Please model this.
Amino acid sequence: MSAARDEHEEAAADIAAVEQANTDFYEAMERGDLAALSGLWLPGEDLTVSSVHPGWPVLRGRGEVLRSYALIMANTEYIQFFLTDVGVSMTGDTALVTCTENILSGGPAEDGNALGPLVGQLVVATNVFRRTPEGWKLWSHHGSPVLAETGEEEDEEPSP
Amino acid sequence: MSAARDEHEEAAADIAAVEQANTDFYEAMERGDLAALSGLWLPGEDLTVSSVHPGWPVLRGRGEVLRSYALIMANTEYIQFFLTDVGVSMTGDTALVTCTENILSGGPAEDGNALGPLVGQLVVATNVFRRTPEGWKLWSHHGSPVLAETGEEEDEEPSP
Model:
């Protein structure tokens, strides 16, 4: 019983650590902190990281992936992520997080305004993390726009 | 040297097996073979599977995921996937496949035609597989529409 309890406690701690790494990822984006963001992705080139931004093609490798975030940060004056429906599925040293990103963002100012127009966006993400000696690191991010607003129902039938 | 060679051969065989599982997934979709498709997803409920179809919210669990494929198959008269730019990144018992799905599909017939109008679609996917005693099985599929056609160039700057 005690071993089973230990195992449960360990699993709960792992899930909490993965959720924290997932939150850290979005907070680094909000702060426009490219250094922090770089540190959250798997280091080295042993495992090829990949990222898909909503509507973008696949980007592969730390260089290409991190350049894309630098580009997005340079073109984003303000961005806030409200995460909902966060789910963690994990086994061994890999964790898969799915979540809904409720995004509020603004571009650079126009015509002397302090801030560009704010835009709301609904995106779903699948984020894959690997356990490393330095904590859970991102292996893959895939975000995509939700085109059909379907509400809370589980059995809705959005068109494919 | 022999051990290193064995390791390389093993890795090459693993990558080939993962690519085959990825191909099998799309071929089952093309044939509208729900039984084959079901067998390609992780069995049981130990690990929660998830799927995001282009423009859809996240679906979780075998029941919800497989129902969505049944629904798509019921509404698809014809579908063909031309996979390009397939990349495999793997470690231990997890493999991550990224690829471009060049899709040609047709809905049910209208007005006495044999086939509905054919539609081309460009989708990118991140597919996560786990090694099991019965081969590599899908843990997660995330497909999303490529909204900006960017061609072959690596340094293009699509808007976020």
Notes: Residues 150-160 of chain B have pLDDT under 50 and may be disordered.
